[in-house]
Amino acid sequence: MPEEASPSPPPPSTADLAAWAPIRRPVFRMLWSTWLVANICMWMNDVAAAWMMTSMTTSPLWVALVQTASTLPVFLLGLPSGALADILDRRRYFIMTQFWVAGVATLLCIAVIADVMTPALLLALTFANGVGLAMRWPVFSAIVPELVPRVQLPAALALNGVSMNASRIVGPLVAGALIAGAGTEYVFVLNAVLSVISGFVIMRWRRDHAPSPLGRERLVSAMRVGLQYVGQSARLRAVLLRISIFFFHSTALLAMLPLVARGLHGGGGDAGTFTLLLASMGAGAIVAALNLPRLRQMMPRDVLVMRATLLQSASMAVMAFAPNVYVAVPAMVLNGMAWITCANSLSVSAQLALPDWVRARGMSMYQMAIMGASAAGAAIWGHAATLTSVPTGLLMAAASGAVVMLVAQYVVSDLSIEEDLTPSREFKAPVTDAPPGAGRVVVMIHYQIDPARADGFRAVMQESRRSRLRQGALEWELLRDVNKPGHYIEQIIDESWTEHLRRFDRVTASDVSLRERKLGFHLGEEPPLVTRSVVEAPGRS
Prior knowledge:
By secondary structure, this protein is mainly alpha-helical. Helices cover 69% and strands 5% of the residues. The chain contains 17 helices and four strands.
């Protein structure tokens, strides 16, 4: 009798796809709330530090360095922090980042009260606070897919965008009120108190951490594997390219927004106008985030990214020549809607292209791409505006952003491939009487194929190369026997026996499918011969 087809899973309900669906899950609601508070504290700290620097010095360089000190840790520590979040207990690591930020805020408060604060000390403590932020972002990004089912992941990531944009409005308002009514040091006091409370809230989360029987990965090795995974994933490379293109161009508006605000009529052109424009952008982002489930059902993700890019470029072009706030505010609302739509869509693509064991490392590189593109874009478009004018600089960024994203959409390959990254135990790890000593492990898999099918076999083996390197192998080569037609040897080199065993824990359903395709070329009833050898150091004479 033919086998009965297994029933397909029921389609997700409307409630599962709703924008607020993840909030109904208690653990997600608890951790999302702490993330919202953490983002508010971040904006409060940035505003208070920048204001304090202006009270100590009038040098534009020192004031600008506050922003540099806040963001530089993301570049320096993005990958290491992502690796640590993958190899340590994520719950404890998340808690540690909260108490780190609380400790830095406490030191800031003590320095202000003791009247020992200097510009250099403020930069150092701002940098230390940035270290906490650099550590916190990758671990939270890796935690989110654990908290919600796959169908709710886009909505959960959109809610993260709501958190960021709501905090962008609330944080500066609270900081400004405290600075005006009590003093800058009270911003740091509130920051420390909220961070400590958030740390204790996270401690209520009961997450089961299962340490690997192979022990923790070494930090350097974990960073290398993370880089290899991203480098060998066509889908991730496409995501990083497109998010870099988007932020490289879209940051032009944020970078020059203070100058745009000064030139507007009907709002005074003062700091209040600048705040109004930022708040308008945040409000637009929140509105779009709540409507993203409907948009995702209406069009494919790549189409959504392209249309959001075009909307962002159009709104930036309007801002270039906006005569007053009555035109600028709606344009900024549309800009915020486009920003969250593109960023969320690409964030979902990145999350779906990462298995759990390397998720924090992959998302840390996603964040590094955003920060790097934003920093470069602000400098380049600011320089272009200096040579021409602010409206011209914005128009150049708007036109370039639309054209470059359109080209990338059609040139970059494998944008739509979604691999099945479900963990699999199909591959059995080798068992030895005694673990080999130190030294690299060389694995050789012997295939005998029909020489007439060699081209197809080599194409599949290139996929095998990418798979092995993504799992952490050091090197991969395909050898052809010169004396025996159709005899090929797949050679994989691992860093050590332990790292060789780790690759078996990283096998996915997609890897199992790839193995079946490779075996489809092998001739004979016996499976391919597999040998494993350990490279020994040459003896001393």
